[in-house]
Task: inverse folding
């Protein structure tokens, strides 16, 4: 919401050069970049610190994202604790096919659950670099974004009073349903959206991984995925109808489907365990163009969503944060607006590339379960090409690893 109305029952106004709305990977990375340059900023988050440090989300990081964090002094724990993944495995037609992508490209993935990265980033920002952050804020509103004097107001959870913060810029990092998306001016934001018409049942199991790598199962009954998260916890996905009720999936049904869809000749059954998370994700993508509106700069899911099909979401959010954080520092410390002027275009080039790959990979994952013999046949042809041609395998690996879009 953009407003010029008076703020009633409010405490004395504060001022920060930048207000960051949302304490996810993008918002906290921007905050850390600013604090490292001695630029004051305020991060606002509607949830508690405990909540964001425990919320399970993505876990796959590309090398470009890790290098970007490392250059900014934000990757020490990650580099010490994260798993390196150098290959993945596709299972279809009852057989298993390994793709050794590190051997093909010299690049690998890092697996580091998002809640661990958020814990690292918030500790560095708040506890080490002394950044200002307010948790549990309510009723956040944005004001005068189309002027040189924007502000942000919110209700303090401790006092119940409105707090007004004047600033030069607002970084919107609070996701698709956040207040910064709602503040987009009518008629000026173009939102492109694609709905896959499928759902994924997202699962966390208290069970050790059943393989040393990520598994993708293409089966007539639906896609299934196996993603190691730690020695004791594994992420699984099962294709399901969009909008399905997770309660329709008993533990017996889940494991029966996983065993069948990820089964292959010569491999032992999956190691089963208690399910500790079960939710349905409707697979869709969207892109907001442009990503800048006056003094509001969107980043991460507030600007674009890439379904977890291609494991790009957190990587794109971090890339946005690197560009926006560096651009804000250059503008505020050197009066150099080049980075901010080119921010939206630079981000969107990468975003659209990942959107296209997500669509291509969705057809690979879901074509065999579409019920359409033609789609199933072309899907199998694509898979055979990847494992029959080193050139095709390398091309797939480079997109899968994000090597074409490094920081």
Result:
């Amino acid at each position: 919401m953009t407003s010029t109305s008076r703020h009633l029952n409010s405490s004395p106004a504060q001022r920060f050069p930048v207000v960051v709305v949302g304490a996810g990977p993008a918002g906290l990375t921007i905050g850390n970049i600013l604090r490292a340059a001695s630029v004051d900023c305020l991060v606002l988050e509607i949830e508690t610190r405990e909540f964001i440090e425990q919320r399970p989300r993505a876990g796959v990081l590309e090398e470009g994202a890790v290098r970007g964090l490392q250059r900014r002094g934000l990757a020490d724990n990650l580099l010490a604790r994260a798993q390196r993944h150098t290959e993945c495995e596709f299972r279809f037609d009852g057989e298993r096919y390994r793709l050794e992508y590190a051997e093909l490209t010299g690049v690998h993935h890092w697996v580091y659950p998002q809640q661990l990265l958020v814990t690292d980033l918030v500790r560095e920002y708040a506890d080490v670099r002394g950044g200002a952050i307010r948790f549990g804020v309510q009723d956040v509103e944005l004001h005068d974004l189309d002027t040189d004097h924007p502000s942000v107001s919110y209700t303090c959870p401790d006092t119940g009073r409105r707090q007004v913060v004047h600033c030069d810029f607002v970084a919107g990092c609070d996701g698709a349903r956040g207040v910064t998306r709602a503040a987009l001016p009518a008629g000026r934001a173009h939102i492109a959206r694609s709905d896959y018409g499928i759902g994924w049942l997202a699962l966390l199991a208290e069970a050790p991984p059943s393989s040393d790598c990520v598994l993708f199962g293409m089966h007539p009954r639906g896609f299934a995925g196996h993603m190691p998260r730690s020695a004791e916890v594994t992420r699984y996905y099962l294709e399901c109808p969009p909008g399905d009720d997770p309660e329709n999936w008993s533990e017996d049904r889940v494991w029966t489907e996983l065993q069948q869809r990820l089964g292959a000749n010569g491999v032992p059954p999956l190691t089963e365990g208690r399910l500790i998370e079960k939710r349905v994700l409707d697979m869709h993508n969207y892109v907001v163009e442009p990503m800048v509106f006056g003094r509001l700069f969107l980043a991460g899911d507030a600007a674009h969503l890439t379904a977890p099909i291609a494991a790009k979401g957190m990587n794109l959010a971090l890339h946005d944060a690197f560009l926006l954080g560096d651009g804000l520092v250059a503008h505020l410390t050197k009066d150099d607006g080049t980075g901010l002027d080119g921010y939206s275009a630079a981000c969107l080039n990468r975003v659209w590339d990942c959107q296209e790959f997500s669509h291509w990979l969705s057809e690979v994952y879901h074509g065999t379960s579409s019920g359409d013999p033609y789609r199933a046949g072309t899907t199998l042809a694509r898979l055979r090409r990847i494992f029959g041609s080193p050139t095709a395998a390398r091309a797939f690996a480079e997109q899968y690893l994000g090597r074409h879009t490094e920081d």
Observations:
- Residues 1-8 have pLDDT under 50 and may be disordered.
